[in-house]
Amino acid sequence: QVQLVESGGGLVQAGGSLRLSCAASGSIFSIGAMAWYRQAPGKQREFVARITTGGSTTYVDSVKGRFTISRDNARNTVYLQMNTLKPEDTAVFYCNALIDSGSGYRSYWGQGTQVTVSS
C-alpha cells in the first residue's frame, strides 16, 4: 500500500512564507513526476506546480516567482516553498505523485493540508 502524507500547512500573514512537505511511503519501486494542487473554498482543484524525476519544473502563472517545488528522491519527498503568500493562496493543498509499486505507474493523492493566509 502506498501513502502520501503532507505536512507544513498552517496560518500565516500575507507576505509570509510556508514550506509544505509530502512524503511517500509503502511499497514503492519508482516515483515519477510529483506535483502540488490546491482547492480553495467553493472552487475546483487546480494545478500549482510539478517536478519531473529529472528536476524539470512547471508552475501555474499565479505562483511563478513566489513558489518553488523541489524533491528529495532519496527520501521520496516533494516540497513546496511558498513565499510572499497572498490571501488568495488560501486553500487546501494536495500532493500528487505517479508511483510504480510493482504493477505500473498509478496516480496517488495525499489527504491535503490547509494553508490559510490572513490579510
List keywords for this structure.
7-stranded mixed beta sheet, 60% strand, 4-stranded antiparallel beta sheet, mainly beta, 119 residues, 11 strands, single chain
How many helices does DSSP assign? Answer: 0
Strand content: over 45%
Structural class: mainly beta
What are the segments in which pLDDT stays under 50 over at least 5 consecutive residues?
Answer: none
What does this structure look like?
This protein has strands spanning 2-7, 10-13, 18-26, 30-39, 46-51, 57-59, 67-72, 77-82, 91-100, 105-109, 113-118. The protein has 119 residues and is an all-beta fold. Strands 2, 4, 5, 6, 9, 10 and 11 form a 7-stranded mixed sheet that branches. The chain has a 4-stranded antiparallel sheet with strand order 1-3-8-7, with no helix packed on it. 30% of the residues are buried.
How are the SSEs placed, and which strands pair?
Elements: E1 2-7, E2 10-13, E3 18-26, E4 30-39, E5 46-51, E6 57-59, E7 67-72, E8 77-82, E9 91-100, E10 105-109, E11 113-118
Parallel strand pairs: 2-11
Antiparallel strand pairs: 1-3, 3-8, 4-5, 4-9, 5-6, 7-8, 9-10, 9-11
In brief, what are we looking at here?
The chain is mostly beta strands and 119 residues long. The protein contains no helices and 11 strands.
